[in-house]
Specification:
4 strands, 10 helices, single chain, mainly alpha, two-stranded antiparallel sheet
Length: 323
């Protein structure tokens, strides 16, 4: 993915072709960067498993293989000057798009397996554990939004239209859009919740890291139970915002032009989050053993297999004598 990002960056510089209202190399560039973040996040999470590591290895390999196939198809279509997504113009284009659809489903199922393994894993730092579990669950919901994009838009018919499916809601793809992201500024855009949901995989663990950095300066954050409560509040707020931007997109409303209902819902989410954070900080602290005084909390390290040697028994006897 790093190599494809470099190739796409060069393409953005030397190739001025435009397809569906965007620079033709923009899609593989954004997709490859997104997969870099996705792959690194999953690799780190898999390293924390204390059981089911073989199943996790296979699930991670499936995710890597299917994402590679998808990127090769996207890049190949760019070279041909053709759309990769929703393209039914010729039997060959339709076959490539159907292959991408299959690989995305397999990739999603591989991530489901990893999510199930994380739910069963015993991770010492509970705040980190729940940030990963909530992050990967929301990411799966964000990825599932992609299936909505494959449904026929207004005026499209399966088996007849050269393009079946769309990113935008209420307006054609390729219209006025935001810089960098390419999200529609005149209608709804399902890429907004798709992006927002999938990147919970990075943003919620980053919340844990931010709390770890602040712990030496804010004594309250040295308590593991406080950090856990804040992570749960943050995860609930993130899930609520994901639901809000999905609702907004499905109503054909641009992200940057919210109506009164959207603003009201956003205000309620902000108020609930503030109240939840205040309650998390003001609630009684945990037992003394839960406090890491003067030091930031340590993030979990990869699980290591237990090594038993012939010296185990003597060491145990020495420990009993010492006690």
């Amino acid at each position: 993915m790093c190599a494809l990002a470099l190739v796409s960056a060069v393409g953005l510089v030397v190739d001025d072709r435009v397809l569906a209202g965007a620079r033709i190399w923009a899609k593989p560039f954004k997709f490859s960067l997104s997969f870099v973040a996705y792959g690194l996040s999953l690799a780190w999470m898999l390293s924390l498993l204390d059981r089911g590591r073989r199943a996790g290895w296979w699930a991670g390999t499936v995710v890597a293989a299917t994402s590679t196939i998808e990127m090769l198809i996207i890049t190949g279509q760019v070279v041909r000057g053709k759309r990769s997504h929703f393209n039914h113009q010729t039997p060959f284009d339709e076959t490539l798009f159907n292959a991408m659809a299959v690989t995305v489903v397999i990739l999603w199922l591989g991530t489901v397996v990893i999510a199930a393994l994380l739910l069963r894993a015993r991770i010492a730092d509970r705040a980190s554990a729940w940030a990963m579990r909530c992050g990967i669950t929301i990411a799966l919901a964000g990825a599932a939004v992609g299936f909505l994009m494959t449904q026929p838009a207004a005026g499209q018919r399966r088996g007849e239209s050269p393009v079946v499916g769309a990113h935008s809601v209420g307006v054609p793809d390729g219209g006025p859009s935001m810089p960098l992201t390419g999200w529609s500024t005149t209608g709804g855009d399902l890429r907004v919740p798709h992006f927002f949901g999938m990147h919970a995989l990075q943003l919620l663990p980053l919340l844990v890291m931010a709390l770890a950095v602040l712990a030496p300066r804010v004594a309250r954050l040295a308590d593991e139970r406080v950090r856990l409560r804040l992570v749960l509040v943050g995860s609930a707020a993130y899930a609520a915002l994901f639901g809000l931007v999905t609702w907004q997109a499905l109503r054909g409303q641009p992200l940057i032009h919210p109506d009164g209902a959207t603003l009201t819902a956003a205000g309620l989410i902000a108020c609930a989050t503030a109240v939840g954070a205040y309650a998390a900080l003001r609630a009684p602290a945990g037992p003394p053993g839960r406090v890491t005084a003067g030091r930031p909390p340590r993030l979990p390290e990869p699980a290591q297999p237990l090594q038993l040697t012939q010296h185990t028994q003597p060491l145990q006897k020495d420990a009993e004598v010492t006690s």
